[in-house]
Every structure is written in structure tokens, then in C-alpha cells.
Amino acid sequence: MEGLGRLKMFFRDIIGQNEVKEHLVSSAGKGFIPHAQLFCGPEGVGKFPLALAYAQYLNCENPTEGDSCGKCPSCVKYNHLAHPDLHFVFPIVKKAKKKEVCDDYITDWREFVKQQNYYFNLSQWLDYIDAENSQGLIYAKESEEILRKLSLRIYEAKYKVMVIWLPEKMHESCANKLLKIIEEPTDNTLFILVSDTPDNIITTIQSRCQRINIHGVSESDITQALESEYNITQEDAVSVAHLSKGSYLKAVETISLNEEHKMFFNLFIQMMRASYARNIKEIKAIGNALAAIGRENQKSYLIYSQRMIREYFVSNLSQPEMIYLAQDEANFGIRFAPFINERNIIGFMDELALAERHIEQNVNAKMVFFDLCLKITMLIKQ
Q1: Which domains does the chain have, with CATH numbers?
Q2: Is the pLDDT of residue 39 over 90?
Q3: CB 57 within 8 A of CB 25
Q4: Can you give the pLDDT at residue 164?
Q5: Cα–Cα distance for residue pair 207/197, rounded to 1 Å
Q6: What's the gap between Cα 136 and its chain centre?
Q7: pLDDT at 378 over 90
Q8: CA torsion, points 266, 268, 272, 277, in degrees to nearest 10?
Q9: What angle do CA 295, 297, 302 make, to 5 degrees?
Q10: Is the pLDDT confidence value at 2 over 60?
């Protein structure tokens, strides 16, 4: 994300989301600051930078009418993600005994967040820490660390803030141990949970949080930001904004000719061609290739494949404004899209979603993708 030159710690620097910003500032001004809030919405729409800008604003010593000052000691420490009363919880992988809780990764976390300018996803974080085939989790032991930190007195801030990124990745025993402290926190303690899939959080935690729904960024806001931050034409910015479907992160990845996108697209082509040809040797080869990219990438690939099938089905409806395909994807679709129709679209989506669940459950990846390809060989002929 080389085009971004500013850190997104201010409300004014966050792309779009004006209604959410106004709500957060207005409610704080009225003294309505729920002790547990759940910022939820699609990936890449700015939930995490909103959470940090909100926490910084609440602790700013000289806030303006609608933003933090950026100059007081509290804001300076927030800009370095190193305020003593700001704590982070996020998915990690166990590499060794000394890599069991988030604080073991805190230096990596701070550097990663700054590099990504606060817009990132789980796959990028896991790649950064070389997770390989491991899935990121918030382990049971983290609950002890959270309770310990919150038992300490506030050092210097108005509020002690605990930001939990992707609480849906929390081990159930960890989540259960936090129920009481989330319901009855110590004085001036705030929980801000930032979630891509809030329905996957245990319901007892959901019910204890004030939900803040954060929707996709408008195409006009994304277009304006891309023109400002990157050396691209307005026409290209408009096209990328449309493809992003409200995700600023996806827009930036599209501009950057994201290597993951290229990999997923090539794997998708290989899988569909091998399945169409009923070439068992090629099917085994694509299964082996997909088994080697790691669990999180496998899940991302299956989500990508579901999107592609949906787009190719819509391509047959002659409604171009409803299609969200990059040029290379659209070119492949000229010949492939007719094979996705009303007779097999539901079957395609069901099988891809089932494979995603199996990967999530740690089923052998080679078996999952081999079986998926065999199912596709039947579906694609319908």
C-alpha cells in the first residue's frame, strides 16, 4: 500500500464513513460512551481505523469539535500504537512456548499496522508473521492476559481501551472467561471489538455489546481517495471503485496488481479447465497446488471462487452495472460464463461453501479439493 502517506488515526483521514464518524463524535459529546462496542461490517471498509480514531478522540487532551488534536502526549502515543492504556488482542499462531499470547507479537503487530496504514485483513497479517499452514486464533491463555491488564490502574488516560480485532477468532473458553469483565468492566474501561463476521462471535458476547454497523465505502469516496493518493486517471479510479464493492482495501489491492489475486485467478482457471476436461491427473495436480498454499489462503481462494461463480452467472443477464470483474477475469468469462447457469449455480455455490467449511474444520486439503473438482466435473456439464 505504498500510495498512502498518512497514518489513519484521525477521523478526517478515514475514507468515507461520515455518518459513523458523526455518530461516534456526537454520542461522545453527549456522554454516551458504551463500555463495550462491536464495530462490525465487511472487510476493508475502515472498521479498525475507526476504532482507533474513536479511542484516540476519547483520550485526547485537547479535542477539536470533531476530531482529536494529534499533538497532545496522548495522541502522540496513540500514533505510535504505544499508549500504556491502549491494549490490543488479535489472532496469532503458536510457534513456540514463548509465542502464546498477543504481547509476544506486539512489536510485529505495531510495525504491520503502520505499514498497512490501518487497512488490512487476516491473510495479510498471517503472511507477515509467517503463519504458513496455521490458522490465526485468539487462544484460551489470552483471557488471563486481558484480565491481568484490566486489573491494573489507569496510567494516564481518561479511558483504558481494549481493542479486540476479529473476536470471532477467539477460542470459546477465552470468550467465556471474558463475559463477566465485558458485562461489568472496571471503571473507565472500554472494549472495542472489531469484527468481519459478527454472527460467528458467541451470542453471549454479542448481547453484551453495543453494535455499530459499518457499511461499504461509497464509490465516490473511494474514487476521490484513489485519485488523491495514487497516480491514476479518474476513469481508472471510477472503474476500480466499482470493482471494490465498498472495500477500500480491495480497491488498493486492485491498483497494486495484487499477487494474491493473480494466484487465485490462475488457480481458478486451472481448476475449471481440469474439471471440464475430466482430467484426473490435472485434478490431482491442482488439488496438490491448493493444498500447499496454507489454510487461510485456501479459505480466501474458496471465497474468491464463490465470487467468481456469482459474477459469471450475472454476466449472462446482460446487466453490466451489476458485474464486478477485473479485465483478466472478464476476458476468461467470455467463454466460461455460459457454463454457469440456473441449473447449476446453486450447486456450485453449495459445493464451494461446503469446501470452505471443511477447510475451516481442518479436513485434509488434498481430499477437499479433489472431491470439489469431481463435483465440478458434474456441475459444469449441466
Answers
A1: 11-213 (3.40.50.300), 259-379 (1.20.272)
A2: yes
A3: yes
A4: 96
A5: 15
A6: 13
A7: yes
A8: 40
A9: 95
A10: no
